[in-house]
Design a protein that fits this description.
alpha+beta
Length: 410
């Protein structure tokens, strides 16, 4: 169904965004959203923005809040008797200052430059170990064989989560990642997986509470132990805040860097000259990573809540309404980039929104860049003639969009 000017109706566009059929390539749909202009849904208390200028302004705007409890929809639900936070204390990403500032500062120690640098040799060894299992001429799943196990091992090492327990919490993490999708916002209904996600969230928090209890009696060189020490030093960090912080970082470690590495592999294999160029010049890896972050970002969208009336590109969003920020759309905006739908690592220095902006800029950005750079350099150097062995299969996630399988012949 289209309007008088040939543009799809807003509701149709948003429902198509949730449709699994668009997961493999949502970018034509993002183009339609940009062409149509901001989608304003006053009856549902939200608006959707897709150009670079719009998204950049929202992410920088002082009236943009991350705490969902500040939204009109959330306050209405609370007034109706629904629990304010059904999944418990949120991670600092979903809080605003001063709580966000305090919690982020404590978590930041795990991602300090000296800590990230110290991990480099370990990341190299992990990558070499994973690739050593492959024989030239073989076919392997680049997700299961490299993109997934590497960042998961690193985040487990940082947090102090036993890697042996990873199979138990990976499924829970995957379900909780789906909770970031704007299903309720776009449809007004909870998704079919809501009860499963609620159960997964309770299990994972219980698991982390148990781990905190273990670290109280047996502290180690890890983030959980450091957060406990901060609490005991009078930093007023509650156990729920420790668990919520670890919960956030664990889910992020399971999803985002996995997608970054996999998306870069896919982009290069679809343009083999870039694969060949990197295989002979590992110095190109950082440009490959940055262009992947622009061209096919691991986090496709985000949202903010207007704490006061906000006017973005001539559109007024009332206080309490949500603003959907389509970063993946913004990074294909022809007003910002030449040939935006072309994967071009040689386009030179670029601005992108893949890690966010301002106080919520991604804490793990340096680590993600390091892991991806090492993994992509090693993979292309070892297997310079690799090829796609079939089409990838995508997970259902909209926000943390990524592949479930990526067959590669090495």
């Amino acid at each position: 169904m289209t309007g008088a000017q040939g543009l799809a109706e807003p509701k149709e566009l948003l429902l198509r965004l949730l449709d699994p059929a668009t997961r493999a390539d949502p970018y034509p749909l993002y183009s339609e959203i940009r062409e149509r202009g901001p989608i304003v849904m006053p009856e549902s208390n939200f608006a959707v923005f897709g150009t670079f200028a719009q998204c950049d302004e929202i992410l920088r705007h002082p009236a943009s809040a991350n705490d969902r409890l500040k939204s009109t929809v959330a306050q209405r639900a609370i007034a109706a008797g629904q629990p304010a936070r059904p999944f418990g204390q949120p991670g600092f990403l979903f809080l605003d200052p001063p709580d966000h500032t305090r919690l982020r500062k404590l978590a930041q120690q795990a991602f300090a430059p000296k800590v990230v640098k110290a991990l480099e040799s370990e990341i190299v060894a992990l990558v070499d170990g994973l690739l050593a299992e492959l024989e030239p001429g073989a076919e392997f799943d680049a997700i299961a064989g490299l993109a997934y196990p590497l960042p998961v091992a690193v985040i487990c090492r940082l947090l102090g989560v036993p890697l042996a327990d990873e199979p138990q919490f990976s499924a829970a993490s995957g379900l909780l990642a789906q909770g970031l999708d704007p299903f309720i916002t776009f449809t007004g209904e909870v998704s079919d997986s809501f009860s499963d996600r609620l159960e997964a969230g309770r299990w994972l928090r219980g698991y982390l509470h148990d781990l905190v209890d273990q670290r109280r009696g047996d502290p180690r060189e890890d983030l959980i132990s450091a957060l406990i020490a901060a609490e005991e030093d009078g930093d007023q960090l509650t156990e729920d805040e420790i668990v919520a912080t670890c919960n956030l970082l664990l889910i992020a470690g399971h999803e985002t860097t996995v997608n970054l590495i996999a998306n870069a592999i896919l982009a290069m294999l679809r343009e083999p000259r870039h694969w060949a160029a990197l295989s002979s010049d590992p110095g190109r890896a950082s440009a490959i990573v940055e262009e992947t972050l622009r061209f096919d970002p691991p986090v496709q969208l985000s949202s903010r809540v207007a704490t006061t009336d906000m006017t973005i590109d001539g559109v007024t969003v009332p206080a309490g309404d949500s603003l959907m920020v389509m970063m993946a759309s913004a990074q294909r905006d022809p007003q910002m980039y030449d040939n935006p739908d072309t994967f071009d690592p040689d386009r030179g220095p670029i601005r992108h929104l893949a890690f966010g902006l301002g106080p919520h800029f991604c804490l793990g950005a340096p680590l993600a860049r390091l892991e991806a750079t090492i993994a992509l350099s090693a993979l292309t150097a070892r297997f310079p003639k690799a090829q796609l062995a079939g089409e990838p299969v995508y997970k259902p996630n909209v926000t943390l969009r990524g592949m479930a399988t990526l067959p590669v012949a090495v």
